[in-house]
Design brief:
This protein has helices at residues 32-43, 55-63, 78-89, 110-121, 136-140, 181-189, 194-199, 203-208, 228-239, and strands spanning 7-12, 26-27, 30-31, 48-52, 67-70, 97-101, 126-133, 146-149, 155-159, 170-180, 213-217. The protein is of the alpha/beta class and 245 residues long.
């Protein structure tokens, strides 16, 4: 797939239900959004843009060196925020791949951002990542989203249930997406699908629409920050000598 560099967009909003204000939460002396901006730049895949729901997030992103676009705080999802920012920053569609790098994964490996881009360049509508786990706690945890893959890496399903059945690891979904630009436009224009509403997983909308999602397996699983306990865990990791602080 030819074209300009991908555009990496980090959606962020202050109104998190379980951890309000988390884009500005301090981690080893920097706000979380600054960590995400550093990860995006370190990936070396393309320019970095923050889709900010509030001016204070935009200010912190710009202080970290990223361009920021203010988006409507009432948009229903991070994906809608990414699309709105892409349209505002690149109305002519020069960037043929849009990366949705979630704003709450400060332990993400930058190389894995580039991996997702490489997967979508090989084909398909959307690319993402998965990470294997043999931990029975992960298997039974509905907050750990499991991907079910064909042998060629095509995503057949996503679920919060313990799946697939039988011996072997579950594949934890890593919350990053690399979209072909036209696929992203089609996705956000479609209404939520029945399975999406039931599982509360928006990627099921794409599958129900007949889109192809391809995934690559990575060993490191970047735990998202969704609670005060997650935030403390990220602070511990990133303040350690082996962290990126």
């Amino acid at each position: 797939m030819a074209g300009a560099d991908p555009l990496i967009i980090i959606p962020a909003r202050m109104a998190s239900t379980r951890l309000p204000g988390k884009p500005l939460a301090d981690i080893a002396g920097k706000p979380m959004i600054a960590w995400m901006v550093e990860i995006a730049f370190a990936a070396g895949a393309g320019p970095v843009l923050v889709a900010a729901a509030e001016p204070e997030i935009a200010a912190a992103a710009e202080a970290a060196g990223a361009r920021a676009v203010l988006t409507d705080p009432d948009l229903p999802s991070g994906t809608d925020r990414v699309f709105a920012a892409a349209q505002a920053a690149d109305p002519d569609g020069a960037h043929d791949i849009i990366v949705n790098l979630q704003g709450d994964m400060p332990t993400m490996n930058p190389e894995d951002v580039a991996r997702a881009v490489a997967v979508v360049r090989r084909g398909g509508d959307i690319a993402t990542l998965v990470s294997p786990s043999n931990d029975p706690v992960d298997r039974g945890n509905p907050n750990v989203v499991k991907a079910i893959l064909a042998s060629d890496g095509r995503c057949l399903a996503f679920t919060r249930a313990p799946a697939p059945w039988g011996d072997g690891p579950v594949l934890r979904h890593v919350g990053i997406y690399a979209y072909r630009r036209d696929a992203l436009a089609r996705f956000v224009k479609a209404p939520p699908s029945p399975l999406e509403l039931r599982e509360k997983l928006e990627q099921l909308r794409a599958l129900e629409m007949g889109m192809t999602i391809n995934a690559e397996t990575v060993e490191e699983f970047p735990k998202g920050v969704d609670s005060p306990a997650d935030l403390e865990a990220a602070r511990t990791v990133l303040a350690a000598p082996t962290g990126r602080a």
